[in-house]
Amino acid sequence: MKLLFRYRVRGAEHLPRDGGYVLAANHNSNFDPWALGLGIFPRRFLRFMAKSELFWFPLGAFIRGAGAFRVRRGARDLEAMRTAEELARNGHVIAMFPEGTRRRKGLRKTRRAEAHTGAARIALAADVPLVPAAITGTDALRRLARVSVLYGEPVRTDDLSDLDPGEAARLATERLMERIAALEESLAR
After folding, report:
1. Quick one: fold of 8-47+92-188?
2. In percent, how much of the chain has pLDDT > 70?
3. Measured between alpha carbons, how far is 105 from 83 in angstroms, rounded to an integer?
């Protein structure tokens, strides 16, 4: 990975050294979890939600072994949310893609990439940091593009504790998406 795609990681100093947190990034390709996690491995291991459609034999066993747990898209999957909150509270790094789907893919795109509040809800409910990240190059692996990851400073959420949980998650998500966009812009330079 480091040689073929000239993999580059910056901002690792912003990641909490201990305890759980939610690591939220833009989503360009199915390779994004690997690019996002490689920068913290072997010290830390990513756990992430994967759409339930991927859990077929033998792919399901491979995905579970890579740290994924099932989420039903298009429905409010409270079980997946509880699993993520519990994992974060227990010190795991939860990787999330707030847009819920890849930005571009194939000829048939059934879901539009737009920010959802799940990452913020998990971080707020588990009382763990919400850390933004940006990934570039994973959507151009066939052209051997450089794969870069930039981790940002945790998003401030301590001022949201007195708000309604839904409103707090919405505001935290706005802050998160602004930070992800800024990180992506700095990677593009």
Report:
1. Glycerol-3-phosphate (1)-acyltransferase (3.40.1130)
2. 89
3. 28
Residue pLDDT, tens place only, 132-142: 999 998 886 67
Dist. CA 40–CA 23, nearest whole Å: 11
Angle at 12 between CA 9 and CA 13, to 5 degrees: 145
**In one letter, which amino acid is 82?**
R
pTM above 0.85, yes or no: yes
Nearest CA among 93, 83, 108, 96 for reference residue 15: 93
Ranges of residues in the chain with a pLDDT under 70 are 1-5, 101-113, 140-141
Q: Where do the structural domains in the chain lie, given as residue ranges?
A: 8-47+92-188
Cβ(51)–Cβ(71) below 8 Å:
yes
Cβ atoms < 10 Å from Cβ of 66: 15
Give the tokens for residue 134.
Answer: 């940006």
How many CB atoms are located within 10 Å of the residue 50 CB?
21
